[in-house]
Amino acid sequence: MEYQTFTNGVKIPMLGFGTYEIPSDTVGPLIQDALDTGYRHFDCAHLYGNEKAIGEALTKSNVARKDLFITSKVWNTDQGYDKTLKAFQQSLDDLQQDYLDLYLIHWPDAKNFQLTLDTWKALEKIYADGKARAIGVSNFSEDQLTELAKTATVKPMVNQIERHPYKVQKALGDFDAAHQIVNEGYSPLGHGHAMLNDPVLVDLAAKYHKTAAQVVLRWDIDTNFVVFPKSSKPERIKENFDIFDFKLEPADIDRINALDQDKHLNY
């Protein structure tokens, strides 16, 4: 495994397992498959509706808590200081944990950013109380991060954004890195989009004797993005983990970067 390090010294595995849109009645065995494969980082959210089942699976496993990295997020309708504290406790209870490794604001409230600033104050309390080892945001722009920095006493350690070869996010990614904010990329494989059939990715897959998906995940890590592909197939879970025996050449990273279309594939 490879790691990124937050400003407070906490390390995050650069490859995790995504749990978005995995039903509660099927997520448990997949969590165990992921653990058996070697995953220790799990990206969760209250919105996904499966945190209770994930908590049960993690609790039943024989992996020590200190070896796990668990993320959750506060959803839009739970923003605000008091509501965020309540939502955090709900996720903590559902996941059957005493603390989380990372807690994020799922989306900024663009129409009422003061509400998001109040939400961040709640995250700062959660962090100060030792209930989360790190705190961050998701889907924030440069302007929103700049606005947050004006009142934050703890700056975000993470910005989780949509990121894949058709949406490279270079400007935002560079901004985050310049401000010591770790980049996380969701939807790295485009949710089954035909992107993986792109001739450049197919060519690179043949060159490295890997699949196009493995090449994309390696590209994420080689460009300093933490990534957490989701899969409901045990064989794909294993395939996605098999990316630590090669690195992309700089020229090949440039070829993938050149595929950028600033195209959303997640909506």
From TrEMBL:
GO molecular function terms noted in the UniProt entry: oxidoreductase activity, acting on the CH-OH group of donors, NAD or NADP as acceptor
Official protein name in the record: Aldo keto reductase
Keyword Oxidoreductase applies: yes
Residues of the active site: Y48
Residue sites binding substrate per the record: H106
Keywords for the protein's UniProt record, in alphabetical order: NADP, Oxidoreductase
Organism listed in the record: Lactobacillus selangorensis
Statement: the UniProt record of this protein carries the keyword Cell inner membrane: no
Residues in NADP-dependent oxidoreductase domain copies: 16-260
Site (Lowers pKa of active site Tyr): K73
Protein family membership: Belongs to the aldo/keto reductase family.
